Amino acid sequence: MNGGFVGLLRQSYEPAPDRVCLRVPAGPAMTYGDMDERSALAAGWLRSLGVSAGDRVVAQLSKSTDGVALYLGVLRLGAVYVPLNTAYTEAEVDWFVDDAEPAAVLRDADALAGGLAGAQPCHDIAACGTDDLAALVYTSGTTGRPKGAMLTHGNLATNALALNEAWAFQPEDVLLHALPIFHVHGLMVALHTAMLSACETIFLERFDAAEVLACLPEATVMMGVPTYYSRLTALDGLDAAACSRVRLLVSGSAPMTAELHRAVAERTGCEVLERYGMSEALMITSNPYDGPRVAGTVGFALPGIEVRVCGDEGAPTVGRAGMVQVRGPNVGPGYWRRPDATAESRTVDGWFVTGDVGRLDADGRLTLEGRAGDMIISGGLNVYPAEIEQALDAHPAVTESAVVGLAHPDLGEAVAAFVVAEPGTAGDPDRLASDLAGTLADAARFKHPKRFVMVDELPRNAMGKVLKAELRARHADLFSK
Ligand code: MLC
Q: Quick check: helix, strand or coil at residue 386?
């Protein structure tokens, strides 16, 4: 794999550089040839800034075609792309920058456009092997301290090839892309698969249900988180006519309910294909393209990837719930500068332990049944309770808190905080709730509890451990009331 992932992409679009790569509504279409040139400018500009192979480049940018060119330019140089959610606060970005020690940090789309305008292109593609690092994707840890999941050129290439085949991508496809490009879903799963087929992508700046619906009739494939589908089904216009060209709707990053799966099928005639993945291992399993897409299951291991489920005693088991483990060329080499966390996430025989609990049936179909920790997935974004609890507990009016995810009609799960106030301070719960939102100023807004509930005490077991399952059960309908 001499030119790494970019070399592989280039082989697929080189014969047809005039094909449209990204089309922004009301903007000019960008061909694959244009994208190649723009990424060469990005590589040249970064090189003039002193970035070289192996250096990290942090990007916290609103979604744009230049953002894609920058990503490809970084890979082209053999440097390492570090995308950050645009919702992260200054304090969060500072932390990531300290950890990644990048050679360049790009946070201003205008500066990027200006840099590209004045750059000398670098048309070379750095020689990158399968094990060379391509990206660091930060995921928060259960203790609240984020970890950079390392992904290599080999991880990107093998996963894109596997998805391309599993989902039958063709040059005639038109992908509707409304996902953010700071996570593996929008950046890697969606864009890589489309670009590897040299097909067209309708590139929307953000998810707006009405705009997505307006673009659907032109699309053959869409990928999204369940919230996209629930917002679309809330619109009258979602029907078979709107999806007349659509051959594939993919959902991932969070579980889709059977009810939503059914609703989309009834309205559009398309059975959503659910797949399962994570930043550390890209895509792991997928429901079949040809064959039953069973609601509530995430399908079979992708070609070349092995999945097993291990029970409490550590042995692989079929038909019973246990820890989902994965092995294959999709699994990254570990966490950036965290050999401890890397070792903890591996079994002695080298399998990656996902942290998800699931069940394999005798045919190898995987059903996810929950997570080992109490991570919350809200609208496809991960939120770690410990981070929010630590911030809340630091407030002088708070004795203690417990943060959980509760069913939410729009976000799947939403963050709720149960707070025990210091005696004498709980006079005005609304006031305390707004103070608490203030103490979370350093955390991205999507992590903030959507609801604060004042309680006299938290339920505990005999060992004194807070019973989060009990809180979740007791307040299951908090967001539907
Ligand atoms: C936005 N907000 C959220 C939120 N997104 N709150 C909780 N959970 C979320 N996911 C809050 C903002 O903080 C803000 O709050 C308010 O909602 C409006 O912000 P917005 O940006 O206008 O919201 P909206 O555009 O409606 O965004 C919702 C969304 C978006 C669902 C469209 O979050 C989204 O695109 N999610 C997809 C995430 C994704 O790509 N995940 C893939 C991870 S990769 P306030 O209080 O400031 O008003 C992965 C691996 C895999 O998981 O397998 O795919």
A: helix
3-state secondary structure of 78: coil
CA 422 to centroid of ligand 1, rounded, Å: 33
Count of positions (residues) in the chain:
481
Residue 193 is predicted with a pLDDT of 98
Task: Determine the distance separating the centroid of ligand 1 and the alpha carbon of 410, expressed in angstroms.
Answer: 10
DSSP-assigned states of every residue in 219-259 = -SEEEE-HHHHHHHHTSTT-STTTTTT--EEEE-SSPPPHH
CB atoms within 10 A of CB 328: 21
Instruction: Single out the residue of 324, 334, 325, 480 nearest to residue 413, CA to CA.
Output: 480
Residue closest to 278 by CA, chosen among 359, 208, 215, 368: 368
Q: What global pTM score does this model have? A: 0.96
Residue 278 CB–ligand 1 contact under 6 Å: yes
Q: Which residue has 């094990």 as its token pair? A: 131
C-alpha span between 35 and 32 (Å, rounded): 5
Cα 434 to chain centroid, rounded: 30
| Amino acid 314: pLDDT | 85
For the chain, the distance separating the N- and C-terminal CA atoms, rounded to the nearest angstrom, is 55
Residue among 262, 46, 283, 325 at smallest CA distance from 183: 283
Closest CA relative to residue 303, chosen from 286, 316, 291, 319: 286
> Does 282 sit in the ligand 1 pocket, CB within 6 Å?
no
Q: Which residues pair with 16 in a beta bridge?
A: none
- Residue of 62, 225, 298, 375 to mutate, ligand 1, most atoms within 8 A of C-beta: 225
Instruction: Locate 88 and state its tokens.
Output: 């992260």
Continuous segment of H or E residues that includes residue 90:
helix 90-100
User: Which pLDDT belongs to residue 393?
Assistant: 93
Protein residue with its CA nearest to atom 3 in ligand 1: 446
CB of 206 closer than 6 angstroms to any ligand 1 atom: yes
Cβ of 381 closer than 6 Å to ligand 1, yes or no, is yes
Closest to 283 in 3D by CA, of 240, 248, 332: 332
Query: In this structure, which residue's CA is closest to atom 9 in ligand 1?
Result: 379
Q: What is the pLDDT at residue 428? A: 67
pLDDT-flagged residues of the chain (< 50)? none
CA distance 40 to 44: 6
Residue nearest to atom 48 of ligand 1 (CA): 445
- DSSP code at position 446: G
User: Model confidence over 77-130: pLDDT tens digits?
Assistant: 999 999 999 999 999 999 999 999 999 999 999 999 999 999 999 999 999 999
